[in-house]
Amino acid sequence: MNRETQLRQACDELMTKGNLEIIPVVFSKDYIAHAEGKEYKGHAFLKQFAQLLRSSLPDVSVLHIEFLNETEQTITWQRTLQGTHKVAMMGIPASHKTLKWNEMVVSRFQDGVIAEEWVVSELLGQLLLKQPKK
Predict the structure, then answer these.
(1) Residue 97 domain flag
(2) pLDDT (tens digit, 9 = 90+) per residue, 34-54?
(3) Cα–Cα distance between 12 and 19 in angstroms, integer?
């Protein structure tokens, strides 16, 4: 399976379908994610994040993926996601509104699996923007 197909499959299975069984197939056991100045590690993090995303936005789906650049070990890509905010997420109350956001990702591969990613996401901003005005 080529790396673009692997990334599409990971997004579809993990985010859209909530299939946690895909994690050891496409991610290294030593996986590291870099986001918002923090590091998150391992399969346990991926499971926790996927469960949080799918419980808070149960109809989440990946609308679009665009691959921007590829080197020997990395792919830089962008994805657009959408879902209805039904349950509090990151301390932000459910708005019951549809959120649509973009993420920029650099995925580094090692031994045929995703070993490390750098993610910049608009999700938090969208969660805040969709809150009812007081």
Answers:
(1) no
(2) 999 999 999 999 999 999 999
(3) 9
Q: How many residues does the chain have?
A: 134
Q: Which two tokens stand for residue 65?
A: 């993926």
- 61-70/74-84 β-pairing: antiparallel
The structural domain count of the chain equals 1
For the cut 90, the answer to whether the pLDDT of residue 5 exceeds it is yes
Contact of 37 with 121, CB cutoff 8 Å: no
DSSP 130: T
Q: Domain of 73: which CATH number?
A: 3.10.450.50
pLDDT of residue 97: 96
Band of the pLDDT at 1, cuts 50, 70, 90?
A: confident
> Would 33 be classed as within a structural domain?
yes
3-state secondary structure (DSSP) of residue 78: strand
